[in-house]
Design goal:
The chain is mainly beta and 326 residues long. 0% of the residues lie in helices and 49% in strands. It is built from no helices and 25 strands. Strands 13, 14, 16, 17 and 18 form a 5-stranded antiparallel β-sheet that branches. A 4-stranded antiparallel β-sheet has the order 2-3-6-9, with no helix packed on it. About 5% of the residues have low confidence.
Length: 326
Amino acid sequence: MEARTVNAAAFNTFLNFSMAAGANVGNLTLTRRSGHGTATGRGFTPTQGYAVPIGFESIDAHWVADVSNNVSRDITISWLSAWDNGKNLTQMQLWRTNAPFTIGSPWVLKTTGTVDMSARTHTATAPAGELRNAWTVSDLTNPLPVELLSFDAKLKNEKDVELTWYAKNEINLALYELERSIDNIHFETINTTNAKNQAENSYAYLDINAKALGKDVLYYRLKQINLDATSKITPAKAVYFRKSLVVGIYPNPYRDILNVQITNPEKQEIELSIMDNLGKIYLQNKFSDSYIDFKPSTFLPQLANGTYILRLKTNTQTEFFKIVKQ
């Protein structure tokens, strides 16, 4: 449904969705997608409701109400028996995504316990800012993916690695496995932690004396394993044991394009300067990212052929590199 002015009035049932009168929502654009997804597909195609590849599934429909005013309203959704998708309607739960305009993000459980939705309808309050998220329902034995809010890996005491993670809505989650790698390809399990299966949970593990492995960088990732043996793995986090900068400059000599790549594990502020042998500065930039991929040639004036100096300066060190323009 394209944008329709609703303001504070009630929105009568349309696309199996309605709103009681309340706060001024302004304009409303309503999207309902129904129909079963596939084992490898999910999303905003018109014929798909929702199906998660790892096996957790809702009913075959979800709703998004895009409103122009960020307010709270009571909403009611309903569905046809053809969309039941085998759910136990006496033990249902309401879910919404953690981010607007997507169904690929983690889902947030909005009901406490279970609700009998045998009538295939449910009314709930959508707090301010949440109407734009996707809404759907599933049953107790088919919860939607757990919301992993954070996973972090940090160097501690210059030799240990502290791993922490925080999750919400753990349901039917068996355990977590922490994995470590020296090459970001082959991983080994270094710790197994049972899931608490509570509303909000925080976890921590210390990889003691990881520096003894003798590597400048180690990679860590977290695997969530469900009771039915399905799993999900986070992207890997890199932990650097070298505090100095790792710098790559290529090609050198260069003609047109000069690339500078810097690994900055401590996220120090770096001042990058390019100057001639007399100290005249032609370019100066500042960075503080852990990894920098910069093309100075894009911003440099047309330099005469010759030898120049690239200087990298932080609060603790200054390094000089010779570059040649041909």
